[in-house]
C-alpha cells in the first residue's frame, strides 16, 4: 500500500538508492575537481627536480616565519637612529660580521632584532623633532639588490616596481647621502632649488633623481606612505617622483636611455609566501592551483622578460640594471635574463660574477672622473674594522654610563641595557656615516660570496637555509651600447653567393 508520498515501498527504496548514487557521483566529481585545483604534488616535484635532496630541508626553512632586520634611517643621523632603535628595541644587536651591509656600502646600516616566539615586529614611533621613523623592517636579503645597483649621488635612478618601498628607501639613502649629516641636518638644503623651480622637475643639489614606479593603486599608496614616513619633505619634493605606469608598456617606448641605474625587483611567484600560506591554511601543506603552478611560473616569466627588456631600453649606455626576484624557479631568474641577453646580443653584458668594486665609466664621466669625500671607493678587504674605528673616533663618540652623546646632537639619547653592548651596536652604525673612512660604494663578487650567496648561470641566489634570509635572486647587467632588443634572425637555409656559384639556395 502506498505511503504518504504516493510511492510503494519498493519505489521508495529505489529512489533512495538513486539519490545516494547521485550524491556519491557529485562527491566524486567534487573530489576530482578539487584534485585538479591542487598543485601540491606538482610544486614539490618541480622544485625537487631543480634542487634535489636539498629541497626538503629548504622547504622546512621556508615554512618558518621570515626574519627581518631594522634598516636605520640616516636622515635622522645614524647615531640618533641607532639610539632610538636601542631604546625601543632593547633586544636588538649588530648584524653578524659577514652580513653587515655597511661593510659593502656604508650609507646603509641595519640592526638585527631577535623576537620572542609569537611576537610581531613593533612599529617604530616617529621622532618628535622631525616626524621621521627611525627604522624600517625588511628581510636582510632585500638590501642586496639596491646595494648591487651601485647608485650614488649624481645618478638618475628608476625603481621600476617599487612597492612596498624598502628598496626605494635604500636607494634614497645612497643617492642623497650628500644631503644629510650625522646631526640630521642637510648641508645641501640651502643650495637646493625650491620645489617647482627650474625646468623639467626635481633634482637635489647633488644632481640625483629617484623615480619610484608602481602600477597597483593600493601598493602605490603604501609606497607613498613609506616615503612620507622615512624621507624628509625637502628631498621628497625636489628629488623623488612616484609614477603609476605599466613598466613594460611605458618604458618600452618612453624615456629611452634616460637612466643611469635601474632596479627591477620584478613581481614573481613568491615561493616562500606560497609555502607559508600553505602551512597556515586549513589543509596544512596544501597548495592551490590559483596560487602556484608550473604554467603560472612560465607566464610570470614572460611578463618579467618584458619588464627587463623595457628597463634595458630606458637605461643609458654604460649604465647598470639589477634584476631581482624572490622566486626559486630558474625560469623566473636565469631564464628571464638569458632570454633578454639573447635579444640584446653584445649590447648587454652580465657583471654579476665580475664585480670588482671599481666605479664604472658612466659614473666616472658623470661625476667628473673623481670621487668626492662622501663617495670614495674602498677596495681593501682588510679595512672595514679599522675604518669603523676611525669613523667613530672622528665623530668623537663617547659613552658615559648608558648615554650615547654626539657633538652634533642637541639631545643625548638614553639607552637601556648594557653600555658595552650599546657601544658595539652604535659603532657598527656610526661606521656607516656618509663621508666616513668606511665608505665603500660598490658591492663586489667577493661580497656575495661572503654573504653566502650561490652562483647561478647569470647571477646570485641567496637562500634561507644557508644565509638565514631570502630567498632572493640578483643579476647585475651593464648596457654596453644602444640596442632595440630585436636580434636579426639568421636564415639557416641561405648561403653566400660564393658558396653557390652566384646563386642563393632557398
Query: Which term fits the overall shape?
Result: globular
Poorly predicted spans: 182-202, 364-440, 488-506
Total beta-strand segments: 16
Helical residue percent band = 25-40%
> How can the largest sheet be summarized?
9 strands, mixed
- Averaged pLDDT: 74
Q: How many H/I helical runs?
A: 17
From the N-terminal CA to the C-terminal CA, the straight-line distance is 88 Å
Rg over alpha carbons = 28 Å
Structural class: alpha+beta
Percent in strands: 5-15%
Q: What would you note in describing this structure?
A:
This protein is of the alpha+beta class. The chain is 37% helix and 14% strand. The protein contains 17 helices and 16 strands. The strands form three sheets. Strands 5, 6, 7, 8, 9, 10, 14, 15 and 16 form a nine-stranded mixed beta sheet that branches.
Task: Quickly list its features.
506 residues, single chain, alpha+beta, 37% helix, four-stranded antiparallel β-sheet
Secondary structure topology:
Blueprint: H1 9-37, H2 40-51, H3 54-62, E1 69-72, H4 78-88, E2 92-94, E3 110-113, E4 135-138, H5 144-149, E5 156-159, H6 166-175, E6 209-213, H7 217-230, H8 233-239, E7 240-243, H9 247-253, E8 259-265, H10 271-280, H11 294-314, E9 315-325, H12 334-344, E10 348-350, H13 361-366, H14 384-394, E11 398-400, E12 403-405, E13 413-414, H15 419-430, H16 445-450, E14 454-455, E15 460-462, H17 464-467, E16 472-479
Parallel strand pairs: 5-6, 5-8, 6-7, 8-9
Antiparallel strand pairs: 1-3, 1-4, 2-3, 9-16, 10-16, 11-12, 12-13, 14-15, 15-16
Helix pairs in contact: 4-15, 9-11, 11-12
